[in-house]
Amino acid sequence: MFGQSVTLFYFAGIKVKVDFSWLILAILISWSLATGFFPARYVGLQVTQYWAMGVFGALGLFFSIIFHEMAHSLVALRYGLPIKGITLFIFGGVAEMESEPPHALAEFNIAIAGPAASLFLALVFWLGSNGFSILSMGSPIIGVLSYLALLNAVLAVFNMVPAFPLDGGRVFRALQWQRTNDFAVATRNAARLGGYFGVFLIVAGVLSLVTGNVIAGLWWGMIGLFLKSAASAAEIDVGMRAAFENKPVALFMKPDPISVPPDLTLQDLVENYVYRYHFDAFPVVQDGALLGLVSASSIRQVPREDWSHSRVRPVMEPLSDRNTISASEDANKALLKMRLAQNGRLLVTDHGKLVGILVLKDMLELLSLRAELEPGG
Q: Fewer beta carbons within 10 angstroms: which end of the chain, N or C?
């Protein structure tokens, strides 16, 4: 989902990061507030005051999104769900849970915590703006607080639309899950609503473009595309879970993978292995001992002119829990490990010996084939 990001701080053990795409949003928000929103509502202030209000409005948005996602995360931790972190990106923020909630009540409480937190902030900022109005403390402060009150109220309402992956969609999934006792069915229903809502926003964006509102049109269109894509990904994910549930990794791995020695030059690796077998990664084995994995991405880190004298060992990814899994392990656990490590393949071992390689692309192709042969499954 994300590109390059930087860690800002830790709170309650939760890492808070900001994706570089957030900078685009921060600049757009500051500019639109300073040149449009605040001048239209608070006439007669200086340009520097408008820009200060715009910057503080953007910072308030930044705080509001973190507060919203932190509410999700803290409730998730209460249910024993590990949180990989919170990431702010151009469409807002996301709390990255490492697994799904254990039951419908947990899903409901985790989902509702975000909008509840936003409503709480809306009330706090509204009380603050009214308090400063009574004290006649100046329109810039009142303006920013009033904006943040409105912003958080809108965030709460928008997030409660019953369209996955919005919070309202997760609440809807929790209710469906409770009613049907079937997580897969509940996810499909919520994701389909999310897809429909995404299409609605795309159409709204196109209409805005046609009527001359370019910025709003692009913004609604991008949000619609994002929601539609996320909803489709959720349907694929639940389909994969059903297809691979209670099945061992050994059923889906490629057995007896082609391995390479650690002292092989990168030139030989590319010419005699990559170009010959058309794989982009190979296990590294020496005297029967599995050492790690060398991939095309690691080869690209070495200048082309150095391939002839550079060896595999220095550039390989060493053996670790991130890139290995037991042949008897549940296939869904392998999928979860791939997702958390952002790794498309795992080395499969049996009592420490390499027996195969598990590739996410192959699993997706199998899922697609199953969908063609069993369209009702």
A: C
